[in-house]
Fold this sequence. Notes:
By secondary structure, the chain is mainly alpha-helical. 62% of the residues lie in helices and 0% in strands. It contains three helices and no strands. The relative contact order is 0.05.
Amino acid sequence: MPTAIVRERQEIEEMLDSLSEENLNELLNFLHYLLFKQNQIAAGPYQVVDQFEGLWADYDISEADIAAARQELWANFGHKNV
Length: 82
């Protein structure tokens, strides 16, 4: 492996040690996205996605969460901001 890549990997490992648990989770999600994007490029631009369950697999969203989000979204609908 080229020296520059080895140094970059070492730098990444050092930075990982300084991240909080919340930021590690965010980084993990971003890495999943990068791998997905990389695979999409390799597969071609017109790959059809027919299942969305995997998109929400890591989230625990309740009916109450959805209701609260809807209420917040529609709370000021039709009101003019002056």
